[in-house]
Amino acid sequence: MAARKVRAEGVTRPGVAELMKEAGLTHGGFYKHFASRDDLIGQAVALALAEGSAKMQRAARKNEQAPHRGLIESYLRKQHRDAPATGCALVTLGAAAGRGDQRFKEAYEKQVRAYLDLIAGPDGTSEEARAEPMLILSALVGALLMSRAVADPGLSHELLTRVTGELARYGSPDSAPPA
Question: Distance between CA atoms of 54 and 118, rounded to whole angstroms?
Fold first, then answer.
């Protein structure tokens, strides 16, 4: 429940009273489970980030020869854009992680690395092989973030479809690497 709130609203918006009410906890019950609001948010952030891994792995398995294609198709969909509470926490939490403490940054980094490894596949260990996964992940997160943030529904849709189309070219036999 708190992980959904964190994905939907970030780490600064949900207050302890609101989170306690949703969880059905009393004030005393809350402090039996968590040392502080920061403890709750820290645990919620870790859970929100980890839950994304399972979804990304399922999406990657849709195309085992090119795992990044399944990710692209699943990630840059209208349904993902319109459901931040169940969507990728990298999008919602990126700015907060940049301002967060070491524990927050490490949790965020762990998920970034996991997604890069998933996109790269087993051959993605060299520095050269990691460039494409970094570009793909950055484009996925950036396009989804911007598609949620703009007011114009047409531009939002265009961000999703154009970035999907451009990223789909990576790894295809007739595509040339970017100059």
Answer: 11
The single residue listed with the structure tokens 């891994």 is 53
Least Cα distance to 161 among 94, 90, 75 occurs for 75
Kindly report, residue by residue over 42-82, the tens digit of the pLDDT.
Answer: 777 777 777 877 788 888 777 777 767 888 888 999 999 99
CA distances from 49 to 53, 59, 153 (A): 7, 16, 27
Name the pTM for this structure: 0.78
How wide is the angle at C-alpha 36 spanned by C-alphas 90 and 103, nearest 5°?
Answer: 40
3-state SS of 79-91 is HHHCCCCCCCHHH
Strands (E), 53-130: none
